[in-house]
Design goal:
mainly alpha, 78% helix, 0% strand, elongated
Length: 212
């Protein structure tokens, strides 16, 4: 009896979590003017193990026939990501509520979790992608320019490093340390916060260089 009560409570919490997350998708789609067909809306309720909409089998067949799964999942993941960001701006308690909803939803098998996981891997806004690509290009450009200047002016690297081997060790050691630091921060802060921190650091570097 106790186990059945616990199971019922777990199912209720998972159902409420799913309804909350689906409502956030609908709300964000309306705000962004992103069209969602009836089939796309109903597929958010799909589950392999849980009772769902009465005609879900037909909806699933139509979805597989008329829609691209990867495109659909990316579309919903972006809406979930943007909805969470909007909620964070509107309420300091939003992130806790979202985490609880996702935790409750994971207690059962729901298709929506696929999109939730994609959203949690941080679907980056286009502006941030441009910043990161620009930064990567800038770093490569600096390294290439340094190599060309070294060759042009015959800079003797042996003057600063006893051997090429030691220079190689220094470069690889620095790269390894940076990778370890990034991984540690990634685990502590999460990928989304880590990426935001990285973008802020780059912006600060660019701002200071412009001031000079």
């Amino acid at each position: 009896m106790v186990d059945s009560v616990k199971l019922s409570e777990r199912h209720l919490r998972a159902h409420q979590a799913k309804e909350f997350l689906i409502s956030q998708v609908f709300e964000e789609a309306e705000i962004e003017n992103v069209p969602l067909s009836e089939v796309e809306r109903k597929m958010l309720s799909f589950s392999e193990t849980d009772e769902t909409l009465p005609n879900m089998a037909e909806i699933g067949d139509q979805f597989e026939r008329d829609y691209n799964t990867a495109t659909y999942e990316k579309k919903i993941a972006v809406l979930l990501h943007n909805a969470l960001e909007r909620n964070r701006r509107e309420s300091p308690d939003a992130e806790r509520r979202w985490k609880q909803a996702i935790t409750d939803l994971r207690k059962e098998d729901h298709y929506l979790l696929v999109m939730v996981d994609q959203a949690s891997r941080s679907v980056r806004p286009p502006g941030d992608q441009i910043k990161l690509w620009s930064t990567g290009i800038a770093v490569v450009g600096v390294l290439v320019a340094a190599a060309l200047l070294t060759a042009k002016y015959n800079v003797d690297l042996d003057k600063y490093f006893p051997s090429r081997a030691e220079l190689s060790i220094l470069i690889w050691g620095t790269a390894a340390v940076l990778a370890i630091v990034y991984a540690a921060l990634w685990l502590l802060l999460g990928k989304q916060r880590m990426d935001k921190l990285f973008v802020k650091i780059i912006e600060m570097v660019f701002a200071s260089s412009r001031d000079k």
